[in-house]
Amino acid sequence: MTDAPSFMADYGERLVDNGYSVIPIMPGTKVPGRFTGGEWSPYPDWTRHCDRPTKPFEVDIWRRWPGCGVGIATGAVVGIDIDILDGALAIQIAELATSMLGDTPCLRIGRAPKRLLVYRAATPFAGRKRLPLEVLARGQQFVAHAVHPDTGQPYVWPEDTLLDTPLAQLPVLDEAAAMAWLDRAHALIPPELRPRSLHLPSDSGAWRGPSDPRGTLDAVKAALAYLPNEDLDGASWITMGNAIKAALGEQGREVWLDWSKSSGKSGNSGKSDTAERRWAKLRPHSIGAGSIYGWAIDRGWVPSPEITLNAAAAERAVQPHPAAAMLARTDATPPAAVVDIHPAAALLAKLDASRAKQQAAPLPVPPGILQPGGVLQMLVDECVGSALRPQPFLALGAAICAVGALAGRQYRTRTDLRTNIYIAAVAESGGGKDHAPEVIRRCFDLAKLDRYLGGENLASGRGMLSALEQHPARLFQIDEFGLFLATVTGGRAPAHKAEIWSELMKLYSRAKGIYRGTEYANKKDAPRVDIHQPCVCFFGTTTPSTFWKALEGGAMMDGSLARFLVFVTDTDRPDRNANAGIIAPQPALLEALKAIARGAGDPPPPGNLPDVHVVPMSATEEATPHTVPMTAPAEALHDRKLAEEDAWAKKVAGTPQAAIVNRLGENASKLALICAISRDPAHPQIAEADVAWGWALAEHCTRTVLRDAQRFLADSEFEKRLNKAINIIGKHGPCSRRDMFHKGLKLTAREFGEVIEALVTNGAVIETAAPASGGPGRPAGSRYALVPPPGDTPAEEVAGDE
Questions:
Q1: Looking at the 3D structure of the chain, how many domains does it have?
Q2: Three-state SS for 401?
Q3: Could you report the per-residue pLDDT of 234-272, keeping only the tens digit for each?
Q4: Considering the domain boundaries, does residue 296 fall inside one?
Q5: What is the pTM of this model?
């Protein structure tokens, strides 16, 4: 398997650049997968990629997986899947699609003459299946590049591929047009090519609706609309009859008769086993509404929120809630007397306290890191000296970004690394984290270097690029970075906001090349602008709560935040500085900043107001940076540290930590370069001390973010499970594990046991034995009910209510 070609390595990045959401495909299959512990396994959460762009670092991880194929998560993309082996008919139906939906340049063939046509959704919609045809839409996927499991050959694109066609250039398709094509195309399929059974899913672990076999009339009718009786075989006909009878009882007779009569052979079979006679003989077993719902969902049905699926839930909805009396008494209690806290709330409060305790003990910053020397030291000293609550470590992060921006396009390492760097500074509110950015702004203004300052807020990706077109080296200092992160990376982020994060990731990788701008149809008024060697430095300040909350959405775990160095202060509340005052940097500091902006070599002769009227290099001009040499001892130390990084990376290969560890050497090299420039802008040389400092700082930031992420995000995930369990039990009354699974708490036995143990141990939930109702030999199992606040209904009464 290790010798298998990686289609992801060859094509993944180009597809992402073209706007497609890609997913990894297990070798030799059509199934999304992941490679962990040296083995491939199915990827259970791949559908999340249908609702957001693929992050560049996801591809960085997946491209290393042996034999990884490339799938396209549908949603913004729609696939018209024609699964027909009759060549003439397959071509006829494909031509019908192009005539009704538009001529798409992208046609994919796996096992000819079967084919798939690719379109762009006007707005995402649910797909639908009418075998052997299918509209693959939101929540589904198709394979773009891999080896076909049947033919043993790669999928082919006879005309244009998605590599050549950006998403925005695909023809637009709406739901109504897609379903109209599906109806007309399916009518062209002769009876012998239509499926003769319901193709019941074989995965017993898949969702099949509520454990109670009874459904509601509205829900069953809505599901059956997706399950037309297209002359199915007798076994499928009887199976559906049993499911309808179990779901609706005698109320389902007319539904069954109507569904049976929709078949073209109804009444023409010559057999005496009519639908009316069969109904009386049906004896449902191990089937019901859940089966109907599951088959319909497989064919594209999305249950409306207004429809109640479960009959028991519908019955409860019209009855007084078991807790109504308790709530009435609570409402009658004067507010001053309500002092009891629900045990569930107490448990969650304990988790919050535990999390806060963990966050209050960051890794201590090694003293040597705070003594970099040069301009970095001068900036840190200025920030510390004028701050009311000094934060030297966060000030160092701001100083690094400032020097990196001024050095942009002027310096590089021998491996062509540049000084662009992204840093997130984390401290509690009121801890002094916002002072350093203000000092940097003041210094740049006084030194007449304000052209290097980007805006303090980013409205869109296009706005950020426009700033770089004016000056290609920029420092962006963003307050409330956690909120910013949640805004631009969330699944519901507006397109113009999500574009900011996407462009930041691209710009990071284009620092030594050319960022090629967007092509517009009106080239006269909106010509494409290319930016040569853009240098973006990004410094964001944030509180721990907003930062880690934003990361729950996956910004770090999917790898995109691996490009950030995370500076976590080792004291959230520093002592007051009695000498704090007005920001007034010394002339020596301002001259040192100007020297970095001038670049390496002897400075130009002084003239009238030097550096004030310097015209910045255009974004379209090719820069020729000075290559900063490295001393022999520095080279030796750097090589040893790279070997350590390789060993660490092997240990975490295939995990979310890998993307962060794999950036360690790159970040250390950039820091060493910035440190050397800071000491001697005119004749920089990376010494052994610079390398040691860069690696120490990069390792500290890496270990901090990995440790805190493991603790905080694990707690967040566990807390979400607790919340979900509490909400389900509170909404539906006493529940068994099976009930809670079908209502959304989909956990393994071990995970469920951990959740229940925490809830029971902390007095939030009680465990009771359910009445035996499954017949002889079937265990009753346990049920779980919320414990009412002290002084309310006894637990026994709550547990017995139904």
A1: 4
A2: helix
A3: 778 888 888 999 889 999 999 988 888 876 655 554 455
A4: yes
A5: 0.51
